[in-house]
Design brief:
This protein is of the alpha/beta class. It has a single domain, classed as 3-Layer(aba) Sandwich (Rossmann fold). Helices cover 37% and strands 12% of the residues. It has a six-stranded mixed beta sheet with strand order 2-3-1-4-5-6, with helices on both faces. Strand 2 and strand 3 form a beta hairpin.
Length: 301
């Protein structure tokens, strides 16, 4: 065998096997990217069956996951422009949200959407919001503007403790907001807190959703084109891992990109936010209707 033949043989041995494609041939979850107007109309037309009923959505999750940014992103989509009512902070790894805050979304000059968001202090390993405070919020016992104490739970004699919560005070959907890049390195203590909160919500018949944020940082294929979000198997695996670890079903986990550095809206970003919001509202409406039917049944017995 000549030297050139030996070199060619060696190169054949060193040749790497072709890598599996980074993108699936078709999305594993279909989404209508051009359905923005009908989705917006769905939000505008939504009305709870009971007059005066308000659908309350509570956001929780680790510090820095993007809870406040998600609220701003929802408002941006519904207002048709970049909106920043919920204050955020990019200069600190500490939790920026310190108070229990309700965000009403204006619909017209004197009208509001019949659903509200509640922002809460983030979860952390050694500090952050007390799990017991989140449980109290689920039951409607926390009044707006309550300042969270990292060292102790809210007491019943606190002036911000709501002794007689109404149906509007109680939470109808619990949303766990997660940075998609932190799934594999999330501290076990935070995972346990999320499971603990989820168990309480399940006991109260409150549906739960997970929002995966910062998906454009997960891989370059999504950053290049957000429509690849359901073609990236790596992101799907992260969602499946979170589903197994915490217990939230896959069909209740939604990847989104929050508006953070943008100054204009993007139709693809809007599509993911509206898809998540529509499912949240449907779950919350089912919760309200179920609770009402249970109350009517109890009264008739």
């Amino acid at each position: 065998m000549t030297f050139l033949q030996k070199l060619g043989f060696w190169r054949k041995k060193e040749r790497k096997e072709p890598k599996a494609p980074l993108l699936l041939s078709k999305p594993w979850r279909p989404i209508n990217w051009g359905d923005r107007q009908s989705s917006l109309q769905y939000m505008k037309d939504y009305r709870p069956q009971t007059d005066g009923q308000q659908l309350r959505i509570l956001l929780h999750g680790p510090v820095g996951a993007g809870k406040s940014s998600f609220i701003n992103s929802v408002q941006s989509v519904l207002h048709g422009r970049i909106y920043a009512q919920a204050l955020t902070d990019n200069t600190s790894h500490d939790c920026f949200t310190k108070r229990y805050t309700t965000y009403n979304i204006q619909k017209g000059r004197d009208t509001f959407y019949p659903f509200v968001f509640n922002d809460i202090m983030g979860l952390a390993k050694d500090k952050g919001v007390q799990v017991d405070d989140i449980k109290l919020a689920l039951k409607g016992h926390v009044k707006d503007n309550y300042r969270f104490n990292r060292d102790s739970r809210m007491s019943e004699d606190d002036p911000f403790y709501n002794n007689h919560p109404t149906d509007n005070d109680k939470v109808h959907v619990l949303v766990c907001v997660i940075d998609a890049n932190t799934i594999t390195c999330m501290h076990k203590e935070i995972e346990e807190k999320i499971r603990n909160i989820r168990k309480e919500a399940t006991h109260l018949n409150i549906p739960q959703v997970a929002i995966f944020t910062k998906i454009d940082e997960v891989c370059p294929e999504i950053k290049e084109n957000i429509q690849n979000v359901y073609k990236v198997n790596y992101l799907k695996e992260k969602m499946e891992q979170f589903s197994v670890t915490v217990g939230v079903p896959m069909n209740c986990i939604f990847p989104v990109k929050n508006y953070e550095s943008e100054i204009d809206l993007n139709s693809d970003v809007d599509a993911l936010i509206l898809s998540a919001l529509k499912h949240i509202i449907n779950l919350g409406d089912d919760c309200i209707n179920f609770n009402k039917s249970q109350q009517r049944h109890a009264m008739s017995c």
